[in-house]
Amino acid sequence: MAKKFHVLASVLALSVSVTALSACGGNNNGGSAAPSGSASSSASASAGASTEKDTITMLLPPVSANYQSKFDQMAADFNALYPNLTLKIEPAGWEDITQKLDTQVNAGSPPDIAFIGSDGISKYMDQGMLMDITDSVTPEMLADYDEAPLNYMKRGDGLYGFPAYMSIQSIGGNKEMLEAAGVDWKNVQQNGWTFEEFRDAIKKGTVTEGGKTRYGFVFAVSGVTAKDYLNIMIKNAGMPAAFTQDLKFAYTSKNYLEVLKGIRQLIDDGSMPKELSSIDAGKRWNMFLTGQTMITGKGLATFENSAKQNNAKLEAKDASAVADSIPVEYVVLPMPTFAGQPPVSQAAVDGYVTFRGKKEPTPEHKANVVKAAYFMASGKVMAETNSELFVGQITKSAKEAAASLGGDRDPDNMAAVDVLQAHAAPARPDIPADLGAKVIKLEDEVIVPKFQALLAGETTPEEMYEAVKKAAIEEFGADGVVQD
């Protein structure tokens, strides 16, 4: 899911409910000066233009620090562009959006649009509650998008919404500590490192003084975040997706076991805390800012901005700075690779996914939902949001709108993110929804619990591997899994 900037943004979640007002005109969606010239307005023509009043409902989390505080303005701008249309936005926190959405889906009355991760599409598609917008989206809208992130919103021949961003999930380090440990971080940013090189680096970065240990590496793994750690690692071991190109379940590969062994080694080396299984996303970031770890994960581009903001507070002696924190220069780093496999970055593509209720939506309402989803996922709205997140813009209209916003990104980090994005795992719209849903079930019921037990020292890599393999064969059949 959509989980990507959740740690920092969740603290800033606001309780806002929105209905449309009036307003600020057509800087969004490619800079159109009026509705008639916008790509969004073309959607109406493609489905039969209508001036009848309509309301589009949305369920939206705190995507960025100031995102939810702009709901009134977003609704006003949309209403100014389409006077007959109203946005009704229900805010949610990252902690409860899945529960809220599932409750509404199970009741047969989901919102028209929800902001979720593209990996959740299979789940709701399997329940028959997603709306394919292929016949309502316009060529102008499609042409606005970078192809790679747009493909994440597809399953088979269907398109189920618009992406907001493609964010690479990796790791990040403290520049001063990396240099003290002898890590050539600029070379690593551009050329990567093997697991053996990474393991050696974090050993050197682990320091014990006065009975206190500063760890070489900490990753948030409490609860569902355990899945993030494992999924990011295994992509760099020849398993860029849960299924191979011939749709065999990939996590029964021998390389999966090698990753499990490696992850356990990092704890046994003392380079990661023995109590790692209890560290959540908030605690790992606190540990990074207070100098208790050299490298942290998962790392997001927005963390550079967060570290800079805390540094500024420290310099100003602002009491709201993180308690006991130190100045930190955040360095974007790639994950290590395993078994001679090429680097593959985990791309988190979240966005505005389109839902339907029990009844078939009218063509007019469908076209209106498309207009609303595109409005939110492009132009000024997305430019401002992605600039806050320090992630790249993925539409031409947002890139144009972002040009006047400025920014303060480290050039080495920007170049590192470009390398990570070049290695991003490609979308797999060819994976059938039912297989995708089975993987989610397998992760929830077997992989995550076993992985948490592995991190806690309650099971071995071999035992976990055999449990995953057994469950996978039961789910997909012996011929439906990789046996190497």
TrEMBL record:
SUPFAM superfamilies xrefs: Periplasmic binding protein-like II
Subcellular location(s) of the protein: Cell envelope
The keyword Signal is assigned to this record: yes
First and last residue of the signal peptide: 1-22
GO cellular component, as recorded: cell envelope
Primary localisation category: other
Pfam families for this protein: SBP_bac_1
Protein name: Extracellular solute-binding protein
Organism: Cohnella lubricantis
